[in-house]
Design goal:
Radius of gyration: 26 Å
Strand order of the largest sheet: 1-2-3-4
Strand content: 5-15%
Largest sheet: 4 strands, mixed
Helix content: 55-70%
Shape: elongated
Number of strands: 10
Number of helices: 13
Distance between the termini: 25 Å
């Protein structure tokens, strides 16, 4: 779901990050507020004032989304769900869960927490708007407060639409899950509803574009595309979790992997290992003990005229912390490590000794077979 993201801060044990796409959206929101909404609502203010209103409106939206996602995270953590953090991205934010809620009741509580919090924030901002309007506060201030009240109510209403993975879709899933006692079936139905809703938004967006409202139609189509894609992805993630549940690395790893002695020259590494086995990554060992790893990237960073003189031991990297895993570790942990390190293989180590290699390709083949048989 995410591209390049940056850590902003950590609060209450939750790491808050921002996807690069949200920076672009924040600028567009500030621009649209300062050049469109606020000049339409309030006449005869300076350009600088409109821009200040737009910036504070965008910051208020930023804060509202964070508070919305924090409410999900706090309820989930209290229910025993492992939380990875909160990320703001192009269409809002998401509280990243390390595992699914244990039961429908917890799923419902986690899902409803966000919309209820947004409604509460909308009411607070509306109260401040009424107080400020009656108390003679500056018009720019009350206008921003009115906008933040409205946007929080809209945020709650949009998230309550029963289209997975929106909050309303998760509420629908919790109800179906409690009814049939089948999480996978409930997720499939909710995801199908979400995909259908997304397709409707895309169609409406196209109609708006044909009707002359290009920007509004484009945004509606993009939101529809996102919901459709996210619904399908969420279902596939659940299928993956269920398929690998209880499986360990030991089941998937290949024993007796191809290793490289540290005394081999870089030239022989290229000729006898890389060109022969077609791997981009090799463990470096000494009598079975893992010393490090060497990759085609290490080779490319070595001047070609030194390939005959330098050895693998000279250019190998210390990769024990990023590219190794225990044979007893959960297969999902291996999958997560591969995704986190952008790697397709992990070295399986037991007491500093290399005992095997686990490859993403082998895990995907297992998943494909198990999903086919379980359908």
């Amino acid at each position: 779901m995410f591209g390049k993201r940056f850590k902003l801060f950590k609060l209450l044990g939750f790491e808050v990050s921002i996807d690069l796409s949200w920076v672009i959206i924040a600028v567009l929101v500030a621009w649209s507020l300062s050049t469109g909404l606020f000049p339409f609502q309030v006449r005869d203010l300076s350009t600088g004032t409109y821009w200040m209103m737009g910036i504070f409106g965008a910051l208020g939206l930023f804060m509202s989304i964070i508070v919305h996602e924090f409410s999900h995270s706090i309820v989930a953590r209290r229910g025993g769900v492992q939380m990875k953090g909160i990320t703001l991205f192009i269409f809002g934010g998401v509280a990243e869960m390390g595992n699914e809620p244990a039961d429908p009741q917890l799923e419902f509580s986690v899902a409803i927490a966000g919309p209820l919090t947004s409604i509460a924030m909308g009411a607070i901002f509306y109260g401040l708007y009424v107080l400020g309007s009656g108390g003679g506060w500056p018009v720019p201030v009350t206008s921003v407060l009115g906008y933040l009240s409205l946007i929080n109510f809209l945020l709650a209403a949009f998230n309550l639409i029963p289209a997975y993975p929106l909050d309303g879709g998760r509420i629908l899933r919790s109800i179906l899950w409690g009814w049939k006692k089948n999480l996978r079936w409930a997720t499939r139905i909710s995801a199908n509803v979400g995909s259908g809703f997304g397709m409707v938004l895309i169609a409406l967006g196209v109609l708006r574009i044909l009707g002359g409202n290009f920007i509004g139609g484009m945004w509606m189509s993009l939101i529809g595309w996102f919901i459709t894609s996210a619904a399908k992805m969420s279902y596939q993630q659940l299928v993956t979790l269920r398929a690998l549940e209880g499986e360990t690395v030991n089941r998937f790893m290949k024993r007796q992997p191809v290793t490289v002695p540290r005394s081999v020259t870089v030239e022989k590494l290229v000729e006898d290992f890389i060109y022969r086995h077609h791997y981009k990554f090799f463990p470096v060992t000494d009598n079975g003990t893992l010393l490090g790893c060497v990759s085609t990237r290490n080779v490319k960073q070595t001047p070609r005229d030194q390939w005959e003189r330098l050895t693998v031991g000279d250019i190998a990297a210390d990769c024990a912390s990023d590219n190794t895993i225990s044979p007893d570790a959960d297969a999902l942990e291996a999958l997560s490590a591969m995704r986190r390190n952008n790697a397709s293989r992990l070295m399986v180590v037991e007491k500093d000794r290399l005992i095997g290699i686990i490859a993403l390709k082998d895990m995907l083949e297992f998943l494909s077979l198990k999903v086919e048989l379980d359908e």
